[in-house]
Amino acid sequence: MKFTLMKKTLGLSLLLLTSTITQADVLGAKAGLDYWHTNDDGNGGYAYAQVEHPIPLVPNIAARATTVKGRANTLNSVDLYGYYEILDNSLASLDLGVGLQHFNSRLNNNHTMAMGVVDVEWLPESQVSYYTRMNYSFSSGYKVTDLGAGVRLQVFPAVYLQAGYRYYDLHTNNIRETSDKIKGFTAGVHIDI
């Protein structure tokens, strides 16, 4: 009796696992490169990449690197995180993730913080789609709010031109309280395969 019940439970578990893998994407990737015109007339840019896989419960992985060189400040940051695709349909795609952000700026030294990510794409299967993204990073004495939103236009299969706006606020409260805001329009290319 116990053996039969265990056999049925194992069979049901394998069936659920197989159906989950069958319904998931085989393998997917997204990548992009953007120019960022910041408010202090400095030159900036960022690149990002994401890899999605069909393995249940194992998070997908993503990375983003940002560089800004302006008159007032120089900023370099790297985001590394794992995420889950919570929603994926023709109206919206929602990813939620956690990870680490490391930054180095002229006004604030090297620092690594815990980070949460919310990434939404609206009408992802349309020729014109929209995206919103929020990173919030924090640790003792530091917090970063990083917001971005924009529009994508499909020009070739899997290739999109994109334009938007990004706001990055590095707030420190160690020896003295400071807030370093970097913001401006972005433009670049997005690939989704």
In short:
This protein has 193 residues and is mainly β. The chain is built from one helix and ten strands.
Question: What can you see in these coordinates?
Answer:
- The chain has one helix and ten strands; from the N terminus they run αββββββββββ.
- A hairpin with a 7-residue loop joins strand 2 and strand 3.
- Helices cover 11% and strands 67% of the residues.
- It has one helix at residues 2-23; strands at 28-38, 43-52, 60-69, 74-88, 92-105, 111-122, 128-139, 142-156, 159-173, 177-192.
- The protein has one domain (26-192): Lipocalin (Beta Barrel).
- With 193 residues, it is mostly beta strands.
The biggest sheet, with number of strands, parallel, antiparallel or mixed sense and barrel status, is: 10 strands, antiparallel, barrel
Q: Could you say how many structural domains there are in total?
A: 1
Average of pLDDT: 84
Distance between the termini: 49 Å
- For the CA atoms, what is the radius of gyration? 20 Å
The helix content, as a percent range, equals 10-25%
Shape designation: globular
Total DSSP E strands: 10
**CATH architecture tag:** Beta Barrel
Strand content: over 45%
Q: Write out the CATH superfamily name.
A: OPCA outer membrane adhesin/invasin
Order of secondary-structure elements: HEEEEEEEEEE
The strand line-up of the biggest sheet is: 1-2-3-4-5-6-7-8-9-10
The tally of helices reads 1
Low-confidence stretches: 12-24
Give the class from helix and strand content and strand pairing: mainly beta
Indicate the CATH topology: Lipocalin
* CATH class category name: Mainly Beta
